[in-house]
């Protein structure tokens, strides 16, 4: 059985690589003991703002066996999204993860292929795929699976790679070989804390979600608070500041996923283009993008707020 575990683990990791994932790590499906009090404190301090869904399924967030019956392993996967080119005019900035096709769709289809491969090569394996759409603590599982450490900006960081990648999971009822946790390499660096335009990183490793520019420009459905005027550093959708200033991201290399390439018009849009954007242009440029989440009215609200 031990030999099988090793063989199955290698099969899965090789297929993940073939599908284009940056890396694949595996950990035992069990209760996240260390994260439980942290999550509870974060919620009690209302750091989730109006993201009320963060309060739901508290137990499931911490215990994968409540999400998938008889689950044994959590397979964590990273997919690079760092773009080769960035917006030429930085008057209004868009988070780099949203340049191309909605990552949920891209990754779901890869996870489907990986699941099919596992069931074909190994046998009757049951499980579920997760892409940032269910109560799963992605970063905690990726760190537990040895794919990196959680940095002071609360994003997962990997040596020689940085942090510009998506995280996804397969939780399955198959015993595999488990990876070991890597150490923290943030050291005394406080670049992300010092650079955050809204001081959302309230202490090392703790981000007040309700102060984050990404929260305001994507999650918040109400009017943007006047108290935040002038503090968004020209971000109209999301924010990459804490990642951009991180020394580990000097190792970021462009992705090789064609579906993440931006719409041809996107990178050349000027301040005037954004100021005058119509719903038709919005639908064309962001047809399959994660930006659709904020809707045309939401993006317009964000642009107006930056003027």
UniProtKB/TrEMBL annotation:
GO CC terms: cytoplasm
Record's subcellular location: Cytoplasm
Cofactor(s) for this UniProt protein: [4Fe-4S] cluster; cob(II)alamin
Chain positions recorded as cob(II)alamin binding sites: 61, 132, 156, 167, 214, 239-240
Domain of life: Bacteria
Gene Ontology terms: biological process: tRNA queuosine(34) biosynthetic process
Residues at which [4Fe-4S] cluster 2 binds: 196, 212, 239, 242
GO terms for MF: 4 iron, 4 sulfur cluster binding; cobalamin binding; epoxyqueuosine reductase activity; metal ion binding
Record carries keyword Nucleus: no
Main location as per UniProt: cytoplasm
UniProt xrefs under NCBIfam families: tRNA epoxyqueuosine(34) reductase QueG
Protein family: Belongs to the QueG family.
Protein name: Epoxyqueuosine reductase
Organism: Olleya namhaensis
